C-alpha cells in the first residue's frame, strides 16, 4: 500500500531538497503570520517551484483565509493543493474549491471519537482530511504544535477515508503511529526541526528512514517471514 508523506512548514531551498531527496510526496507552506514557519507568497513562489520541479505536490496551508488572501497565494505561489486549517465550514470549503479549481485538504483537531464525526459534513466536499492534535492550552497556533493524539481513535474511521495523520510525529514514534493507524498519508513539521521553524536536513532524513524501516517490518510480518 502506498503512503503519502507531507513535510510541512518548509521555508528554505535546503529543506525542500532534503524533503524531495527523502521521497516526500507533499510539501507544505504556511501562510499564517503568527507561525514561526510563515512565508510570504513572494518568498514561497520559488520554493514551491523547486518542490514541483522535484515532483513534489505543493500545499498552501491557510487558517480561515479570506478570498483576497487566497487569490494572492494561488496567483503567486501556484500551489497544487490548498490546506484549510481553521474553522472553515463545509460551504466555505466548497466555495474555495470551486473558486480556485484546486483540491482541498481540510484539517481537523482530534481529541476524541466525537471529533471524527465532524468529518461527515465534509465528505464529498473536501478532497482529503488532515487529522491533527488539538493545540495545547495557550498555544497561538492551530497546527505545528508538536503534540500527538490517540492514534487508536482512527480505527473507527470508514476504511475509504482519505486522510493524513498529523501531529507530533517524529522519527522516534512514526513507526508506532503507522502500526496503530495504518494511514494513507502522514504529515510532519516540528518533528523534523532543530528549533521552531528551522527544518533540519538530518532530522528529515531520519524521519524517512524510520518510515522505511517501519514499513519494511510490517511487510516482513505480513509475509510471515
Ligand atoms: O505549522 C504551523 O506553524 C501551522 C500554523 C498554522 C496552521 C497550521 C500549521 N501547520 C499545519 C500542518 O500541517 C502541520 O504539519 C501539522 O499541524 C503538524 O505539526 P507538528 O505537530 O508540528 O508535526
TrEMBL record:
Pathway: Amino-acid biosynthesis; L-tryptophan biosynthesis; L-tryptophan from chorismate: step 3/5. It is an enzyme of class 5 (isomerase). Pfam families: PRAI (PF00697). It catalyses: N-(5-phospho-beta-D-ribosyl)anthranilate = 1-(2-carboxyphenylamino)-1-deoxy-D-ribulose 5-phosphate. Residues 5-208 form the N-(5'phosphoribosyl) anthranilate isomerase (PRAI) domain. Its EC number is 5.3.1.24. CDD domains: PRAI. Keywords: Amino-acid biosynthesis, Aromatic amino acid biosynthesis, Isomerase, Tryptophan biosynthesis. SUPFAM superfamilies: Ribulose-phoshate binding barrel. Gene3D superfamilies: Aldolase class I. The keyword Nucleus does not apply. GO terms for biological process: L-tryptophan biosynthetic process. It comes from the Bacteria. Belongs to the TrpF family. This is N-(5'-phosphoribosyl)anthranilate isomerase. It comes from Oceaniradius stylonematis.
Amino acid at each position: 500500500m502506498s503512503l503519502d508523506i507531507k513535510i510541512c512548514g518548509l521555508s528554505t531551498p535546503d529543506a525542500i531538497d532534503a524533503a524531495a531527496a527523502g521521497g516526500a510526496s507533499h510539501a507544505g507552506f504556511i501562510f499564517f503570520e503568527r507561525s514561526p514557519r510563515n512565508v510570504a507568497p513572494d518568498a514561497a513562489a520559488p520554493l514551491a517551484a523547486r518542490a514541483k520541479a522535484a515532483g513534489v505536490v505543493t500545499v498552501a496551508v491557510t487558517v480561515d483565509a479570506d478570498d483576497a488572501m487566497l487569490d494572492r497565494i494561488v496567483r503567486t505561489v501556484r500551489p497544487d493543493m490548498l490546506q484549510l486549517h481553521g474553522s472553515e465550514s463545509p460551504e466555505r470549503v466548497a466555495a474555495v474549491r470551486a473558486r480556485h479549481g484546486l483540491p482541498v485538504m481540510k484539517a481537523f483537531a482530534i481529541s476524541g471519537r466525537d471529533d471524527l464525526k465532524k468529518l461527515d459534513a465534509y465528505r464529498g466536499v473536501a478532497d482529503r482530511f488532515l487529522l491533527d492534535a488539538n493545540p495545547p492550552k495557550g498555544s497561538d497556533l492551530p497546527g505545528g504544535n508538536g503534540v500527538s493524539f490517540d492514534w487508536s481513535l482512527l480505527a473507527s474511521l470508514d476504511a475509504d477515508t482519505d486522510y493524513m495523520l498529523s501531529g507530533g510525529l517524529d522519527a522516534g514514534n512514526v513507526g508506532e503511529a503507522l502500526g496503530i493507524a495504518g494511514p494513507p498519508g502522514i504529515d510532519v513539521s516540528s518533528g523534523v526541526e532543530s528549533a521552531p521553524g528551522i527544518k533540519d536536513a538530518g532530522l528529515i532524513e531520519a524521519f524517512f528512514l524510520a518510515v522505511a524501516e517501519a514499513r519494511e517490518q510490517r511487510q516482513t510480518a505480513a509475509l510471515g517471514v
